[in-house]
Amino acid sequence: AANGINAIETDLAELIIQLAGESSSHILVPAIHKNRAEIRELFLSKLEVDSLTDAPNELANAARAHLRRKFLSTPVAISGVNFAVAETGTVCVVESEGNGRMCVTLPRVLISVMGVEKVIPSWQDLEVFLQLLPRSSTGERMNPYTSLWTGVSQGDGPQEFHLVLLDNGRTQVLTDTVGRQSLNCIRFSACLNICPVYERVGGHAYNSVYPGPIGAILTPQLVGIENASSLPYASSLCGACYEVCPVKINIPEVLIYLRGRAVRYKQRSRSLRTRLNPESVAMRLMARTFASRKLYEQAQRLAQLGQLPFQHGDVIDALPGPMGRWTAMRDLRPVPRQSFRDWWRSRQAAHDASEEVRS
Q: Which of 46, 73, 100 is the last residue of a domain?
């Protein structure tokens, strides 16, 4: 806008988000957090309409009339790219509203921005993905609009075409033997639809272009784990995302891997605040305890004694301090009076004693 350029979103949901001055909350349905009453108020205040109800067809027609005027008067369009076929240099855009088709055919100049991971070898590969994508994202047998073009055609469509290959950290991700599988994603959004965490917190909680499970593994790799260290923890590791992913990205594996990277990054930090963080201190103590058999057994005995004031019957239902938040919602099983090692020692002692009696 500062340079006199007025960018207009043409996808209906993205237009709603743009008019509201918000960010999208879903890869496939960016305005899923908006209801039709909110959209009506938004259109009345932002679009050139005199009266409007919240009926879906009226809202769609209002957006259609607004966008049609823009399509017919805008000389330059910018599109994304779903796939690019290396075999022929063909670019492909799939969508369900027709706005993509308008963008790639009406303006005089077309600029397409494509992540470098979108390149596929051949038309046979494209055939597979064009079947996978609609089935896994919207449940359709085929996509309503599939636009393909190879350069420009004299007198037909845009007469000037520019393809921008976007790296933005992708080649760095490609060098990571574990994290590189994240680049296989073609934005089906199946993982978002099945994720219990995304269902509860919504897309805005991820503070990223890519919300949900795929955002939790892709964003930290693109922007750096130091800038998104909390995202790999936005998961219960239930594995549902891996089960529904059509391209079989092992999201739980990458999440655990990135959690390790986040921990190592914090460990390398020399700031006093990081070193004295309660979680970091607790983890260091636990690591030291678990690394020593003697310390581990001493910790067990201390836990057996320390739990007595909080134990009621067979459960611990109230803990002091920050741990009280945990027991406020669930009970803990107490530390057994006899550990496995103690039981094994007593069993072995009894066995040895019986052997001596026999001899």
A: 73
Q: What is the DSSP string of 27-82?
A: SS-TTTT--HHHHHHHHHHHSS-S---S-HHHHHHHHHHHHHHHHHH-SEEEE--S
Question: Is 88 domain-assigned?
Answer: yes
DSSP code at position 336: P
Mean pLDDT of 53-76: 94
CATH code: domain of residue 152: 3.40.50.10420
Domain extent for 220: 171-268
Domain end call among 56, 73, 90: 73
Same domain, 187 and 233: yes
250: which DSSP letter?
-
Going from the C-alpha of 108 to that of each of 111, 112, 142, 159, 162, the distances in angstroms are 10, 13, 29, 6, 12
180 and 117 within one domain: no
Phi/psi of residue 260, each to 5°?
-65, -40
pLDDT at 359: 67
Confidence band (pLDDT; 50, 70, 90) for 258?
Answer: very high
pTM for the predicted model, two decimal places: 0.78
225 in any annotated domain:
yes
Cβ 47 vs Cβ 30: under 8 Å: no
Per-residue confidence band for 322, with pLDDT thresholds at 50, 70 and 90:
confident
> Among 29, 35, 18, 80, which residue's Cα sits nearest to residue 211?
29
Sign of CA dihedral 254, 260, 266, 268: negative
Total structural domains within the chain: 4
In one-letter notation, the amino acid at residue 119 is V
Beta strand pairing call for 145-149 and 160-166: unpaired
